[in-house]
Amino acid sequence: MNVLEVDLSFLFVIAVILIWFTIAYQFILTVFGYINYVRSMKEKRELDNRSFDYPTCSILIPAHNEEKVIAATIESMLKLEYPKDRLQIIVINDGSKDATKSIIEQYAAKDARVQLFDIPKGEGGKGKSRTLNLGIKQAKGDVIAIYDADNTPDKDSLRYLVAQLLLHKELGAVIGKFRTVNKNATLLTRFINIETLSFQSMLQAGRWQMHGISTLPGTNFVMWHHIIKKLGGWDEEALTEDSELSIRIYEAGYKIKFIPYAVTYEQEPQQWGTWIKQRMRWVRGNNYVVKKFWKEIPHFKSKRMAFDLLYTLSLYYIFFVAVVFSDILFLVSLFQLVAISLPGPYTFVWVTSLILFLFELFLYLSYDGEDTLTNLAIIILMYFTYSQLWIYVVIKSVYQDLIKKEKRVWDKTVRFDVPAAHS
User: Fold this and answer.
1) pLDDT 10s digits, 236-251
2) What pTM was estimated for this model as a whole?
3) Is the pLDDT of residue 420 over 60?
């Protein structure tokens, strides 16, 4: 055995250990996610048999060139089962150049709950965080709810979210579930649908059930108005403003709860170019969050949040490096360019990891009745294609941040004309 082969064997073992550490932790989260699913269904039934004195609530909907979706979104907000005299729907028009403003005005003229806030020229166009910081100044509610401009929530979603704030004083925010309304449009949206359902069942439900942590998504969540005011609003430098704000909420002594029965439906990218831009924004946003809080992690009041942030770091970087190296080794071994003579049940290890991947995702899909043979085939294809594309996304994002040092700019996801029906 030469030196090169020894070095490669050592690195191969390290890669296997890193990957399996992540897989093992994700399996634990899967178990806790299932427990959360069972308990959440019971919790939902209990809430349906109770009545609440709901506080005033202001819904904030940032809108920039949203003429294709904003009408359906406003209509779904007006159908929410929430006391009409306690609901304020603020649609924040951020310099739209299409018919967005006129559509909002039409609804505002019909229903006093709908209010247009037109960001003055020169003050907007700086991303979602900036839009929310300007829009919240118009909010009168004790509770703030955030929905994206393409969202059509179930009619009972908002009251479920707010009820949790009323029941548990330790909560600073409550988040619901989002599902893909255009999941059958393309192969890409089928991949995204499986990914988002899995992410929420594992990393949201599993983490909440295991150690009381979940993180704000970009939509379908509520929080106390006084808390966001106390925290000084949203960080306008953050591309993933939800992740950044989540850390500050926990550091302020509050928790964020995930409830899977408060559901909204949203559009997802149908083109690969749009998807890559969106995911690069996510990765670069997380790069910013890690950089901002890195030195503070040892001093976090919430040690569980500190662990969670480190886990996120490992998921994006350490696991990423291990996967890249293992892919390279797989290819060079396949073409017999390099031999790994180190003894070990590596074939069994990789087959087991694939089986766990399939099992976990198929279990998550069963919660929403999507555990079909077609989706099983898509998951297998996803393992070898879609999942590997994260390598490109992470490499390009790191290159833009560390090498080119490009300015972080908010890139809005392209909207599509799709049926609003939830199916």
Assistant:
1) 888 888 889 999 999 9
2) 0.87
3) no
Nearest to 90 by CA among 125, 61, 131: 61
- Going 136 to 141 to 145 to 151, the CA torsion angle's sign is negative
Say how far apart CA 261 and CA 346 lie, in whole Å: 41
pLDDT tens for residues 196-205? 999 899 889 9
What distance lies between CA 77 and its chain's CA centroid? 21
* Residue 284 tokens, joined: 């670069």
55-281 adopts what CATH topology? Spore Coat Polysaccharide Biosynthesis Protein SpsA; Chain A (3.90.550)
Amino acid letter for position 155 = K
- For every residue of 134-180, DSSP letters joined together read HHGGG---SEEEE--TT-EE-TTHHHHHHHHHHH-TTEEEEEEEEEE
What the block records as the tokens of 57 is 């609530």
The tally of CA atoms less than 13 A away on the side-chain side of residue 305 is: 26
Tokens of residue 315, six digits: 């998921």
CA distance 277 to 225: 32
The set of residues, in sequence order, having a beta carbon less than 8 Å from that of 204 and lying 6+ positions away, is 175, 214, 215, 258
Q: What's the CA dihedral at 384, 270, 402, 11 to 10 degrees?
A: -10
The whole-angstrom separation of Cα 92 and Cα 137 is 11
Q: How far apart are CA 36 and CA 106, in angstroms?
A: 42
CA distance 94 to 100: 10
| Residues with Cβ within 8 Å of residue 129, at least 6 apart in sequence | 233, 234, 235, 236, 237, 238, 241
pLDDT score at 342:
57
Which residues are within 8 A (CB) of 172 and not within 5 positions of it... i.e. 6 or more apart?
Answer: 223, 224, 227, 249, 252, 254, 255, 256
Residue 11, CA distances (Å) to 5, 86, 180, 326, 331 in order: 10, 60, 39, 9, 15
**What strands lie across the sheet with 87-93, from one edge to the other?**
114-118, 87-93, 57-63, 143-146, 221-224, 171-180, 255-266, 152-153
- Alpha carbons 318 and 18: distance in angstroms, whole number: 7
Kind plus residue range of the DSSP H or E element containing 287 = helix 272-293
The answer to whether 40 and 261 are in contact (CB under 8 A) is yes
Q: Select from 87, 218, 58 the least CA-distant residue to 149.
A: 218
Please name which of 238, 178, 246, 151 lies closest in space to residue 207, comparing C-alpha atoms.
Answer: 246
